[in-house]
Amino acid sequence: MSPETTAPRSLAEALRARDDASLSALLRSRPDLITPVPTDLTQLATRAGTRASVVRALERLDRFTLQTAEALAVAREPATYEELLGLLAGDDGDPAATAAFPHALATLREQALLWGSDDRLRLVRTARELLAPSPQHPSPTGLGPTVGEATAGMSPGRIQEIVAEAGLATTHDSVSAVASLSALFSDRSRMSALLDEAPAEAVDVLSRLVWGPPYGQVTAEPASHLRWLIARGLLLPTAPGTVVLPREVALHLRAGRAHRVTQPVAPAVEAAAVHGPGAVDTAAAGQAYTTLATVEELLKDWHEGGPPVLRAGGLSVRDLKRTAVALDVPEPVAAFWVELAYAAGLVASDGEADERYAATPAYDTWLELPAAERWARLASAWLAATRTAGLVGGRDAKDRTLSALGPGLDRSAAPEVRHRVLVLLTELPEGASPDPDSLLARLHWERPSRGVRTAPDDLRARLARWTLSEAELLGVTGRGALSAQGRALLGLPAPAGARAAEPSGPGDKLPAHHKRRGAPPVTVPTPHSPAERAAAAARAAALLAPLLPEPLDHVLLQADLTAVAPGPLERPLADTLGVLADVESKGGATVYRFTPASVRRALDAGRSASDLHAFLAAHSRTPVPQPLAYLIDDMARRHGHLRIGAASAYVRCDDEAVLNEILADKRSQEFGVRRIAPTVLVAQADPTTLLAGLRTMGFAPAAESAEGDVLISRAHAHRTPPRQAPEPVPDGPPVPDATLLGAAIRAIRAGDLASTAPRKDDPAPGRPGDGALPRTSSAETLATMQAAVMTGEAVWIGYVNAEGAASQRVIAPIRVEGGFVTAYDHTADEVRTYPLHRITGVAELADDQL
Fold it and tell me: Domain Helicase XPB/Ssl2 N-terminal, which positions (predicted)?
């Protein structure tokens, strides 16, 4: 029999028979297996069978593939292809399960959870231990132990009594008796005949146990129908007062099915409503504009230094509430915006002794970008972030409140769930919004929780719900449907003619012919490299740019001391107007109000009355109202009439009557004001306090420097030192790229060649070696090396490096001199030099090697 047709006797042998493409698929689906790279295929097989790796692999199986593994865990070992299929399709042969079974089996085989030929299928031992039923860990199948397992501690006499009561011939040993009983319970016709004799109450008991749990309680004197079942082994005792339904009996009652309900087909994502693609993109663009405005407003609110950092890290509840009020949004939404700015590297702690949050230098760079590129940077940061704003306000494992920007918000599964949710939206017709329940059902089918039938409140479900709401806030989706820029962000091309379609009403239902039941899963690779992510963000920005409103260079001045900005303003205009007036309301149009305090703020910033008049005249499409002109002139005339300096502080004014008025006002007594000259007062208060106090008294003083010049006050832009955006917490090892996979497979195969290459003196030259290092004397080693140099043959050596690590290698010696051997190392695929004293021994390879 040729090696290709020889059935593997272990997982290592099964892996050894694979080609490079199959090994690449295994390492790509289970990247933890090459961290670090195994030395050979035996070590790879060992690592693939470790508990942590197997658990991780099982958690990434879809529902039907996991059900296939669970069925194999309760099948006899080894099982045949037909036996395993029968456990999934049942005696009636479910066509859907039959059609999906080959793919599920191939997936288990590809991920090294199953090995062996189709007539000898074996589950990896660790997977079988995890999935097989036991009293401590019931199986999701609801099945109990086999007859052999349940009777393991039973006396031989009792076993013979059960065999006789079941109508079978007694035997001379317990093993054959148990086998006879198992054969009876597995025979459909004989088992049906036995149950036809059962009392009706006994059948009712079996029906209550058949789908699990298989354990029941009985009294010391059970009823007659229970005694009938126990006597014939249909219920077997496992402990005093406890009986179990044997697996063979349950499978007969289930018509051969291991699961009550199999799910071979992924549930389709249903559409709740359909909208025109143009309407979707327009709505998403509006939300994208709101995203930019909100983030800018947040950072403007923290311009001079944001809220303090809690000792444990993060924002306090009070500061989060203040931020929510400033942004005019609910607190959970405010937490999302704060976390988004943090994920994009626009906000960080300043690291000072009195630590506060502030904008980073990257924020200033971000502001200079075009609007669409600013949005793409935010959306890309959200898609890749592991920090989860939805957890804010919850509790951690130690019952501590989770705060925005604080520790404990990272969830490594968040990027994968976000990406998958958005990809599932592409299964719907263009412009369709999903039904959330069907979307969650699909996600749960793709990544079910082992042993849990439904998990509506698990982490993945919550992440999916948060993804839908956050994507809508960001403008990745519009009206619940994936936008063109959202598709580009995933690396997908925008549908042709997406914006040409006429928008339909928000309540339009999806026609029945648009619903795609049982649609095959859509696989969209995640952009992993920075270059791929940058390219996807650039495409998204290019699609969004035409949909964003153009910045305006004008406002509309009103007679009631307000100005209306009918759209987004150009940055210089917006910045100046933000100093000269206060924002009264926001929305599609922003309303600014001019007040004495806001005009004085502009004058404090160094603007003169003539500058303000010229600015308003240049940027208003309506004439400057007279009340506004009077307000500016009045505030400018009074501004700087009083001068305040340091004495602690002084007040000087050419008009002695004004100083007399200050001295006569009782409110000035708290500042310790007194006259030192006809036009000068001094105070014990500092200049800043005195300046604010006199303004509350109705005066309009201006601060001056030590040289007597009027001080121009501008908002101090507090910035943190340069900060990097937070790195996402990886969900296990990264998926290896093609270069790493190729190098890893070459190293594994070379190491496997060294560890399994048969020697000429091997008593079984056709079989791999046992992994022991060759042992020869120094003289034998030197002689064999010199002979190999002359013949050009490869040899097998054992080698111990300077750190004491032992390894096996296959080398082709080139020369031997000075206590060193220079050789081509087939294991490392390069020429190396080895000290002879570190070689434990050498052996010649069999003639058919290399």
Answer: 555-677
Shared domain for 65 and 201, answered yes or no, is no
Give domain status of residue 516, yes or no: no
680 beta partners: 652, 677
Confidence at residue 323, expressed as pLDDT on a 0 to 100 scale: 93
Say yes or no: 362 and 391 in one domain.
yes
Pairwise CA distance, residues 478 & 486, whole Å: 9
Paired sense of beta strands 562-565 and 590-593, if any: antiparallel
Considering the domain architecture, whether residues 333 and 372 belong to the same structural domain is answered as yes
Q: Can you give the pTM of this predicted structure?
A: 0.76
Which of residues 638, 664, 687 is at a domain's end? 638
Secondary structure (3-state) at 543? helix
Quickly count: other Cβ atoms within 10 Å of residue 20's Cβ.
13
Residue 722 has what DSSP assignment? P
Q: Which residues pair with 822 in a beta bridge?
A: 815, 833
d(CA 290, CA 389): 19
Query: Of the spans 218-222, 472-476, 697-701, which averages the highest pLDDT?
Result: 472-476
Token pair of 280 as six digits: 């979707």
What's the mean pLDDT in 820-835?
82
* Neighbouring-strand partners of residue 825: 811, 830
Report DSSP state, residue 143: -
Q: Is residue 283 domain-shared with residue 425, that is, in the same domain?
A: yes
| Token reading at 497 | 């003619």
Question: How many Cα atoms within 13 Å fall on the side-chain side of residue 70?
Answer: 30
pLDDT of res. 520:
43
Q: Residue 5 domain-assigned?
A: no
How many domains, the chain? 6
Do residues 115 and 245 share a domain? no
Give residues with Cβ within 8 angstroms of 427, minimum separation 6.
268, 269, 516, 519, 522
Domain-located, residue 37 = yes
CATH number at residue 833: 2.30.30.100
Confidence at residue 524, expressed as pLDDT on a 0 to 100 scale? 52
**Tens digits of residue pLDDT in 170-183:** 888 889 999 999 99
Mean local confidence (pLDDT), 62-82: 93
Predicted pLDDT at 494: 60
Confidence class for position 528, pLDDT limits 50, 70, 90: low
Asked if 127 and 63 sit in the same domain, the reply is yes
Per-residue pLDDT tens digits for 419-454: 999 999 998 999 999 999 999 999 999 988 654 444
Q: Beta partners for 564?
A: 556, 591
| Residues 154 and 250 reside in one and the same domain | yes
Q: Which domain holds residue 686?
A: 644-714
Q: Determine the Cα–Cα distance for residues 842 and 824; give it in Å rounded to an integer.
A: 15
Q: Please give the sequence-ordered ranges of beta strands (E in DSSP) within 503-600, or none if there are none.
A: 556-558, 562-565, 582-585, 590-593
Between 684 and 83, where is the model more confident? 83
Q: Which residue has the tokens 């890290």?
A: 313
Q: Which residues of 804-833 are buried (b: 16+ CB within 10 A; e: fewer)?
A: eeebbbbbbbeebeeeebebebbbeeeeee
Residue 87's pLDDT is: 94
Helix axes 459-474, 371-384, angle to 10 degrees: 180
Q: What is the pLDDT of residue 489?
A: 92
Residue 796: both structure tokens together: 């097998």
For 756-821, what is the HEC assignment?
HCCECCCCCCCCCCCCCCCCCCHHHHHHHHHHHHHHCCCEEEEEECCCCCEEEEEEEEEEEECCEE
Cis peptide before 138 (omega within 30 of 0): no
Three-state secondary-structure class, residue 123: strand
Separation between Cα atoms, residue 255 and residue 250, nearest integer Å: 9
Cβ pair 580, 620 in contact under 8 A: no
Q: Are 782 and 836 contained in the same domain?
A: yes
Report the candidate in 81, 57, 70 with the shortest Cα–Cα distance to residue 123: 70
The whole-number pLDDT of residue 700 equals 83
| Mean per-residue pLDDT over the chain, rounded | 84
Residue 760 included in any domain: no
Domain end residue (candidates: 697, 714, 731)? 714
